[in-house]
Amino acid sequence: MSVSRPASRREVLARSGALGAGIVFTGALSEVFAGTAAARTPRGAGHGPLVPDPDGLLDLPRGFRYRVLSREGDPLRSGEGPVPSHHDGMAAFPVGTPGGRGRVRLVRNHENRVDAAFPVPTVEGLTYDRGGKGGCTVLTLDAAGDVRDERVAVAGTAVNCAGGPTPWNTWLTCEETEDRAGTNGYERDHGFVFEVDPADPHRTGAVPLKAMGRFQHEAVAVDPRLGVIYETEDAFDHPFGLFYRFLPAKPLGGTGSLRAGGRLQAMRVPGVPDLSTIQETGTRFDGVEWVDVPDPLASGTPVRFQDFGRGGITHAQKLEGCYWGGGSVYFVSSFARSAEGSAADHHGQIWRYDPERRRLTLVVVFGPDTDVQLPGESPDNICLAPSGGLMVCEDGDGAQHVFGVTPRGEVYAMARGRQDIGTPGKPEWGEFAGVTFSPDGATMYVNCYTPGTTFAVTGPWHG
């Protein structure tokens, strides 16, 4: 009988070829945001156990409540057509001056493909490609949290998965596809980022930001000090996606400034061609490099297949959520499977990149025998919680959750979808996506992907 043991740090790094690449480890978990978490919710973390919802929609801790703001297939309040399918990435923006305090606009993606039950309606001046079924809608909420308006913000795009807000209060919506004109009924190439002004979508229209690259985009996060934009790529096949940064020609220039172009670069961690090989929280890499993308428009070859010269480039499977906070950008690898081409297996990672130190740190690992041993896997969208830490949407099999991760690395369940339990006569309840908070931190908004539903969750967030 052989006895297995956890691999040492040196063995992990030797397997990944990363020894000698400027790697150090911290002995204080507080320095790396998250570390070892217990197999169940630690005492003091979170808001208590989840209470079953008698209506069979959303389980929450005691003291919290939800309301359904919008469902796919219901009429848009603008009269433009039905609420589109496949609610995905989302952000909340304040409305107007201090006199409008408490009012919120939600910008919501719709990850529609050509077979979507409810496409985003085409609107003059806001439609990129009449063959595209995806796009964004905007919900305007009053101070009481009631929906007062719901309308199309951009249409004719494809597979709008995630994105991210900008410091000038616009939304960057990302197409998770590389389909060309002439395929799937498309009249134009897809795989771009589009800017959406939630207050007046006609100011931004439906203009692709081509310098930000044409690839299977997932999410973006903006450095509010320098205007650098970080982008994740959720590529479906091997070699998997890259982590990018875009250096705008007009950083922090405001609405429409990104049309001026800039430089697209991809992250290289010397000696680490695949991030899945790094398995131990607290592992950090100093001296991260950024390499210019040879052909950002992928006119002949998809970006991840392109030649990045000596040293290659660093890949990772299922790069998803991306969020800026505390001087760093956090990004998610939802899972890695060696059977699909990854160098190693994991059930989800959260990484932190510190631009000032050019330092990459693995801060959370999900799954069996790792940090987060809750009944969850495959983290997806993430955002900062008002009391600190992160909120993480789960994208795995079985019950779907929104998890919280405290700054001490404690993990707790914040919400659980109920329609995935196979109740006769009820539709399957899909993954959570688009978690975000109101500007005052009093309300968490989150989407269910299918059937497309937007929730508002209130309660003692600061308790």
Q: What does it look like?
A:
The chain is an all-beta fold. It has one domain: TolB, C-terminal domain (Neuraminidase). It is built from one helix and 28 strands. The strands form six sheets. A six-stranded antiparallel β-sheet has the order 1-16-21-20-19-18, with no helix packed on it. The chain is globular.
CATH evolutionary superfamily? TolB, C-terminal domain
Mean pLDDT, to the nearest integer, reads: 86
* Alpha-carbon Rg, integer: 21 Å
The CATH architecture designation is 6 Propeller
Report the CATH topology name. Answer: Neuraminidase
Question: What class do helices, strands and sheet pairing give?
Answer: mainly beta
Strand content: 35-45%
Number of helical regions: 1
Shape descriptor: globular
Poorly predicted ranges: 1-43, 369-376, 420-427
Taking the sheet with the most strands, its summary is: 6 strands, antiparallel
Q: Which percent range fits the helix content? A: under 10%
Order of helices and strands: HEEEEEEEEEEEEEEEEEEEEEEEEEEEE
Widest sheet: strand ordering? 1-16-21-20-19-18
Q: Give the N-to-C terminal Cα separation.
A: 51 Å
CATH class: Mainly Beta
Domain module tally: 1
What is the number of beta strands? 28
Keywords summarizing the entry:
mainly beta, Neuraminidase, six-stranded antiparallel beta sheet, 1 helix, 28 strands, 35% strand, 6-blade_b-propeller_TolB-like, DUF839 domain-containing protein
